[in-house]
Amino acid sequence: MATDAPVSDLQESLTAQSPSPGSGRSARKSDEISLLDLLIVIAERKRIVLRITAAFAILAIIVSLILPVKYTATVTLLTPQQNSSLSSQLASQFGGFVGVAAVAAAGSGLLKNPNDIFVGMLKSQTVEDAMIQHFGLMQEYHQKFLSDTRKELEHYATIDGSGRDSLIHISIEDRDPRRAADLANGYVEQFRQLSQHLAITEAQQRRQFFEDQLKQANKNLADAEQALQETEQKTGLIQLPGQTQALIQSAAALRAQIAAKEVQIQGMQTYATGQNAQLVEAQQELEGLRSQLAKLGGNGENPDSIIVPKGQMTAAGVEYIHRERDVTYYETIFNILARQFELAKLDEAKEGALIQVVDPAVPPDKRSSPKRSLIVLASTFIGFIVGIFWVLWLSALDYMRGDPETSPKLSLLRRAVSVRSSRTRHG
């Protein structure tokens, strides 16, 4: 390949600038050039640079026009805020009975960002599978397996709740703008269906806790009433003497208060030390209740040992007392849990909806990709850089061909490469 005259002049000037053998600088290479020399080489072959740059720009325009157009729809959600519960405000109205509520709410407020749990649920496999089935995404994404369809959906879906606005943003990218909006809103619907079966917030956890306990207490009360009815039919007793009846009711009420206070203390011990004033006060109240029960003859190991008037109880009467005591005890427990359950329901209603839609997704009127202007500008810049490097490479190659030292080596390299290429073709 012949070189241009200015390039030859440049090579001659470079050769002339090389140090003499006797100058003491033989280690310095003779191919060092300045920035001005590089600019001269680029300017002399500027047509090549422009052609490569134009080729990249034209190719970028073609590719940007071929790429499928996609639209992004976004829905913005507001999650429940952590406020003081209604139960804590009304606790003083129920004395020691509300201690059970401390257990259900002991673990609240542990997350640094409350949105993390909601983002995790939105990204759960249950929600994604429901989205795939509802919108037929396996056919839309041309996938045979459900796991591959999930990955494809995660590629087009962005769920972020880490912003300073404390909101959750769900963005879906799709070729159809209306379908993109439907998919974004579909995430909200599928999440709501999932959350109906889960207790997430503090109020929901307490409501679920007391609801389960209330069902068990109701069953125990029904069994106790059935046993009392059978005892009445067997013994013929219908009503106990007034003093005995009062003893049974007092003992049952004390046992119920002791049970509630023990649960409260167990919950407080999970986060309070032994010197905590409220814990010490609760323990003292528990000891007082146990002392009152002991005066009636009852204790934790044998609650049946309740003092009754001597000489008035037959064997049938003692059995009736046991059944009457069980009914009174489970009835008291049921009333305590029922009040707590109603308070938890009020808290849950106060919180409102689990998530609220701030901005529903609407079909976007502008495409989100491809960004044609950005693609063309970036490709043009890359083409310009490639053109410069190509020109510099050609100039360096011409220089090596004209150099007596590197020209034989270059020819030897060319023959070695050609021999190996021919062997590869014939082999």
Q: Class by helix and strand content?
A: mainly alpha
Number of strands: 4
Overall pLDDT, averaged?
74
User: What is the element string, with H for helices and E for strands?
Assistant: HHHEHHHHHHEEHHHHHEHH
Count of the domains? 3
Strand content: 5-15%
* Basic shape: elongated
Unreliable parts: 1-11, 13-31, 83-110, 300-313
What strand order characterises the main sheet? 2-3-1-4
Radius of gyration: 42 Å
Fraction of residues in helix: 55-70%
State the end-to-end distance: 31 Å
Describe, in plain words, how this protein is organized in 3D.
- The protein is mainly α.
- It has three domains: 33-67 and 370-416, no CATH class; 71-200, no CATH class; 202-353, no CATH class.
- The chain has helices at 5-16, 35-44, 46-66, 86-90, 101-104, 115-122, 125-135, 137-140, 146-156, 177-195, 202-235, 242-269, 277-295, 315-351, 372-402, 406-426, and strands at residues 71-78, 157-160, 167-174, 356-359.
- Strands 2-3-1-4 form a four-stranded antiparallel beta sheet.
- A hairpin with a 6-residue loop joins strand 2 and strand 3.
- Helix 3 runs antiparallel to helix 15 and helix 7 (125-135) packs across helix 10 (177-195).
- The longest helix has 37 residues, at 315-351.
- The radius of gyration is 42 Å and the shape is elongated.
